[in-house]
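Structure in, sequence out. Go:
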């Protein structure tokens, strides 16, 4: 069993209190690692180390090519260790090895992308398109790193989410304090080892573990932090935004979702039935952008549901390390109880349980946190199971009469993270997609994301974007530079000096 340490200012050390806790495998209840139980004091130490590294260290002043080389070296190690890291991620989170194997591949690819992007961020002045001169002035924009970035990630994709946060922050020259979820800390702590191994300077990356309430508040409110990046529930996101307001920190939030999955009446069922199962039950439904509200036309409803139920009842549950396993456990006993509480709420609201709705037992399943794949029909959009994020293998099916009604139901939500449309007619599907108030819409697909394209939500699903130019821009300050033309002519060295400094 691994004994992990906090990583602060380039050193591996215990929490100041000396306290630890165990990370538990949700498949069998066995401890897999000893984790430091940090506190607000540890968060303060990490933030001060990151502040010093930003203000005095080499990282923000390195050429982008130098940062790129170090980040790229780390990406290379991630690629070499994909199988080991997939196994660790599976043990820590309960994700099936097929899922965590994909995560390990994508994490290496995504970090390599951010390494390449680092070359673009050198603090050099950029001309403003269409405005090279304004009167007697030359005009430029400079993109500078924001400073110290506090980053808080969730338990459902702990490895990839760490890369989503670390990658753009480091590429653009920032320093970082990252806190993983207490339930799934292992891969973030492995990444600390990688950063140390490749020689990222002390204080640039700090990774700390401990209770989210105490440490999250310390990171969010700390006056030496310039930016907070959070992925998690909308409820916690609201709290972080409120706490960050005291010092007017830049905040980016990727929060909850209740994705509307619209199957139009001309959809190909051979694709849409399996696709809708994939949309909702991937990683046991513990995905913020899952399609957890399935919208079926009245004429197709019964037949479509019948096919889905047959397939859901046949899904194999078991050991996440077995490649034949289709559904693993949810992340913890607490999450299992929360999901089953929502099942009871759905029944109480009058929804009809078509399959699942109970803990899965028998054999090795008795040791783990397994919930049978669950589908409700007769759901209306005012029910809690249609409005609240359950984060488990529970699908709410709603019936619609017209395309306009389907769109109205989809948009009647506080969330706007994801949506999907299934149709043989791509032009029709694109028109429906254009009416959905969500940050990402899939047509005849789900869960596909690219590090080159922005990802984020409308409404209470978040603020800002991950990935793409937009995601990198979330970690930059913009400085506008005006250079007087007269002084440029009279004192050319002064002009050269300003431009060279960026």
């Amino acid at each position: 069993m691994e004994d992990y340490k906090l990583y602060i200012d380039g050193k591996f050390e215990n929490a100041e209190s000396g306290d630890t806790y165990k990370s538990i495998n949700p498949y069998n209840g066995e401890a897999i690692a000893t984790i430091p139980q940090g506190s607000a004091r540890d968060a303060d130490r990490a933030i001060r180390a990151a502040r010093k590294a930003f203000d005095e260290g080499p990282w923000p002043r390195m050429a982008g090519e130098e940062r790129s080389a170090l980040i790229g070296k780390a990406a290379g190690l991630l690629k070499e260790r994909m199988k080991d890291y997939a196994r660790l991620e599976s043990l820590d989170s309960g994700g099936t090895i097929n899922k965590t194997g994909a995560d390990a591949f994508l994490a290496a690819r995504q970090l390599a992308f951010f390494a390449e992007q680092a070359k673009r961020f050198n603090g050099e002045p950029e001309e403003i398109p269409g405005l090279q001169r304004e009167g007697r002035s030359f005009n430029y924009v400079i993109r500078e790193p924001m400073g110290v970035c506090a980053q808080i990630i969730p338990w459902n994709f702990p490895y990839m989410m760490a890369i989503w946060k670390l990658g753009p922050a480091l590429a653009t020259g920032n320093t970082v304090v990252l806190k993983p979820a207490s339930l799934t800390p292992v891969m973030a702590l492995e990444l600390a080892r990688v950063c140390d191994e490749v020689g990222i300077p002390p204080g640039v990356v700090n990774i700390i573990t401990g209770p989210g309430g105490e440490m999250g508040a310390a990171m969010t409110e700390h006056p030496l932090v310039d930016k907070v990046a959070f992925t998690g529930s909308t409820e916690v996101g609201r709290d972080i935004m409120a706490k960050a307001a005291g010092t007017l920190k830049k905040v980016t939030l990727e929060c909850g979702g209740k994705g509307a999955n619209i199957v139009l009446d001309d959809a190909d069922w051979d694709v849409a039935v399996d696709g809708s199962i994939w949309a909702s039950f991937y990683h046991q439904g513990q995905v913020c952008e899952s399609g957890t509200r399935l919208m079926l036309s009245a004429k197709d409803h019964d037949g479509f549901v019948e096919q889905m139920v047959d397939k859901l009842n046949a899904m194999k549950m078991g050991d996440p390390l077995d490649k034949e396993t289709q559904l693993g456990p949810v992340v913890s006993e607490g999450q299992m109880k929360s999901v089953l509480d929502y099942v009871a709420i759905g029944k109480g609201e009058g929804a009809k349980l078509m399959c699942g709705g109970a803990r899965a037992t028998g054999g090795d399943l008795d040791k783990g946190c397994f919930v049978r794949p669950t589908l409700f029909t007769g759901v209306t959009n005012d029910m809690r199971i249609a409005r609240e994020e359950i984060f488990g293998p529970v699908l709410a099916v709603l019936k619609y009469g017209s395309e306009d009604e389907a769109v109205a139901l989809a948009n009647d939500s506080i969330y706007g993270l994801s949506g999907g449309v299934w149709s043989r007619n791509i032009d029709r599907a694109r028109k429906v997609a254009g009416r959905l108030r969500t940050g990402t819409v899939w047509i005849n697909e789900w869960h596909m994301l690219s590090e080159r394209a922005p990802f984020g939500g409308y409404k209470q699903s978040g603020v800002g974007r991950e990935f793409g130019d937009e995601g990198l821009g979330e970690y930059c300050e913009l400085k506008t530079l005006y250079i007087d033309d007269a002084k440029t002519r009279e004192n050319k060295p002064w002009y050269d000096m300003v431009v060279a400094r960026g």
